[in-house]
Amino acid sequence: MKRLLLTTVAAFFATTAFAEYPDKPITIVVPFAAGGPTDKVARDMAEALRKPLGGTIIIENVGGAGGTLGATKVAKSAPDGYTLLLAHAGISTAPALYRNLQYKTLEDFEYLGMINEVPMTIVAKPTMPAKNYGELVKWLEANKGKINLANAGIGSASHLCGLMFQSSIKIDMQTVPYKGTGPAMTDLIGGQVDIMCDQTTNTTGQIESGKIKAYAVTSKQRLKTPILVNLPTLDEAGLKDFNVTIWHAMYAPKGTPKAVVDKINGALKQALKDADFIKREEALGAMIITDSRVNGPEHKKFVESEISKWGPLIKAAGQYAD
Description:
Helix content is 44%, strand content 19%. The chain is an alpha/beta fold. The chain has two domains: 2-118 and 246-317, D-Maltodextrin-Binding Protein, domain 2; 119-237, Periplasmic binding protein-like II (D-Maltodextrin-Binding Protein, domain 2), CATH 3.40.190. Strands 1, 2, 3, 4, 5, 6, 7, 8, 9 and 10 form a ten-stranded mixed β-sheet that branches. Helix 6 (157-169) links the parallel strand 5 (148-151) and strand 6. Helix 2 (37-53) packs antiparallel against helix 11 (275-283) and helix 4 (90-97) crosses helix 12. The longest helix is centred in the C-terminal third of the chain and has 22 residues, at 296-317. It is globular.
């Protein structure tokens, strides 16, 4: 009887302690440098979360090691809901890319829910003679052994998409990793490299200005963005079941109280319906998540499937980040 009473009292105080959450600033850790695509999503999300969640939200950029330093910081933070992680799909590829990862993706976080998906675009240098995707594939076949495929670095979105693209069309290319999208895009525009697969958030402006050529998007459906609406999906172009998106989601340290997790998830769902947030994301070609993956358990199942998809491909390529 005494043990039951103590348990009940402890549960009461635990619930009461988090009833006023948040009562101090919340830090959202972005595991990449300021100014990049994930940082922009995080800042837009922070703005959309302020009203439904209440309180002050601070963005902290902890870049390095392909996003794993920031993720490690959150995994090792106090599980009180005041240090959160906003990361992209790299959290599901890190287990294969990094052989000395300092956290366990499926065990060290509370999954809060998914935010968006950002499709990739197949783009090429401005002097590429191909007029459409079919002609591009013919050009790639005719130039086997001489093709330079740029990416923003080992483990980046463009690196992973490039691996999948090569594997799907069965044409090996010379991978050219850069230290970021900026220098990779500069060399693509200048014609020093031939082709790249990168996020719409990085390519839309260059496509609109005519500095690079675009051939297809990697989403299941065509995009609504005016600049990209006429680009076919790879599935439409003949490369069936090719669907690569760079998604973003939120996490808390393992052990964060359920009441706090539920409150953040509820606020996240409201933020995803914020008209200004939707407008900003869609302008970049991003697609807001509206399915069951906005819930933590369903997002975790999705991450498990992503780990199963990317792990074998990365190991087969032998291109590790450490």
